[in-house]
Specification:
about 450 residues, Arc Repressor Mutant, subunit A, Aspartate Aminotransferase, domain 2, about 45% helix, globular
Length: about 450
């Protein structure tokens, strides 16, 4: 947490305590922003942040032109699930804004433009399906492990990446986030220490918070997770899991080097923890790229993939490849929680993957990404902004803001102009207020004229 975030949370916690103890009754008007800032000896922006958190958690409601009022909801202090849910919702706010599409300009978008992925290979298949694709739909419950022909295709794909895995050791899921959810439900308990990339994948942070896990951020540099930081924190915490994204890292665009991969696996062996490797952009990356699962052969690495970033965010299909025992436990958890994933959608993805046009689609998509990267970096240089890495993999640029610019405040000002930004602080576990702020930018949207005008005005470029 930054200093301001910490103060905002302290103010919110004090107000929650007053509500739970009955000091602040339903309908009570909270202090005005100015009065609260004076009473708590903080800035008005900090009070706004505290009140926003109370609104998100359901304790107060804003009334236009009249201030903030207590809703009457009282939660007991020992309502651990409610607290964890509120923390998770706070983290997932950025995700909600992406899903609801309420912004005109989407510079902070985590996904590619729909026309990049859905406008070619996918639409032709959906037309064929709509006209009656023979054998696509079968009206029966199937095995919760997922559609066998798709698992067989994935087994061959992973073999190209030097990951030897039998189809029976691949579980189909409703995307990568569902895969993470199954792993967390099965193997983590409240209070467990968990290691993650920092900066890292913020929806994962929210899931871990909801489970009551104790998040420990592992520093990431241009070659991947810092081995010394990983070893020190794993040993001190006793964590049993480390979640990491090796290639086309979200949000920095960095990719793991082979030497760094060996270091990480050596540390995992020495300190006996499992690694969950997220390969969300696997189909866009070379088969020979450094993957922990290829070096480890799924002994202590659990490999997670998805098609959301490559085919369509609406096709909720992902997968987990792991040892037989690990997959067996996840199959049971999947069956108990959602019974099964969609056999229909899994058949659609299988049909697309086995069509000769899929590799052409990947080549075309990679070309679009490379062109957008070159153009985006050129535009950022004109604005005086420098990406952390220029030769990135995937959709993202991690851009440092000028000294004195706060990413959250900048994001709020952008939102008033219907520009969606992704502030770097939501991707960090432990924010260091002494460090400069960052933004995660999607290369597909950087050249938008409205964004350039906004940054010129706000950053003095």
């Amino acid at each position: 947490m930054t200093g301001k975030d910490s103060k905002a949370e302290q103010i919110a916690a004090r107000i929650v305590l007053s509500i739970n103890e009955g000091v602040l009754q339903k309908g009570t008007r909270l202090r005005s922003l100015r009065a609260a800032a004076t009473a708590y000896n903080v800035s008005k922006n900090t009070v706004v942040e505290a009140y926003d958190r109370l609104v998100a958690r359901g304790y107060v409601e804003p009334r236009h032109g009249a201030g903030y009022y207590v809703t009457g909801i009282r939660r007991q202090p020992d309502d651990a699930v409610g607290v964890r849910q509120a923390e998770a919702v706070d983290i997932a706010t950025l995700l909600r804004e992406q899903l609801e599409h309420s912004f005109t300009t989407r510079l902070g978008e985590g996904r590619p433009p729909a026309e990049w992925v859905e406008g070619s290979v996918l639409k032709s298949h959906l037309r064929n399906i709509a006209s009656g694709h023979r054998g696509l739909f079968e009206h029966a419950y199937e095995s919760p492990i997922g559609y066998l022909p798709l698992r067989e295709t994935l087994s061959r794909t992973l073999e190209e990446r030097s990951i030897a895995v039998h189809p029976q050791n691949i579980l189909l899921t409703l995307g990568a986030n569902h895969a993470f959810d199954l792993i967390i439900r099965q193997y983590l308990r409240p209070g467990d220490a968990v290691l993650t990339d920092s900066p890292g994948y913020y929806p994962l942070f929210a899931k871990l918070k909801l489970a009551g896990a104790r998040l420990i951020g592992v520093r990431r540099d241009r070659s991947g997770p810092d081995p010394d930081d990983l070893a020190a924190k794993a040993q001190a915490s006793g964590a049993r899991f480390f979640f990491t994204q090796s290639l086309a890292h979200n949000p920095t665009g960095s990719s793991l080097t082979l030497g760094r991969a060996y270091d990480i696996l050596r540390i995992a062996d020495q300190l006996d923890f499992m690694i969950v490797e997220d390969d969300a952009f696997g189909d866009l990356m070379p088969a020979s790229a450094a993957r922990l699962a290829a070096l480890d052969q799924l002994r202590r690495v659990v490999y997670v993939g998805t098609f959301a970033k490559i085919l369509s965010a609406s096709l909720r299909v992902g997968y987990v490849a792991a040892s037989a025992d690990f997959i067996g436990n996840l199959v049971n958890m999947k069956m108990l929680t959602i019974v099964n994933s969609s056999g229909y959608v899994e058949r659609i993805v299988h049909t697309v993957l086995n069509d000769g046009h899929y590799r052409h689609h990947l080549k075309r998509l990679n070309g679009r990404i490379r062109d957008a990267q070159v153009s985006a970096i050129r535009s950022l240089r004109k604005l005086g902004l420098q990406p952390w890495i220029e030769e990135v993999d995937g959709y993202y640029l991690w851009v440092e803001l000028p000294e004195g610019i706060n990413d959250i405040e900048l994001t709020r000002r952008a939102a008033r102009e219907s520009i969606f930004l992704a502030p770097g602080s939501v991707f960090e576990i432990d924010n260091d207020p002494s460090k400069r702020s960052h933004l995660r930018l999607n290369v597909a949207y950087v050249d938008d004229a409205r964004c350039s005008e906004f940054f010129k005005r706000e950053l003095g470029g």
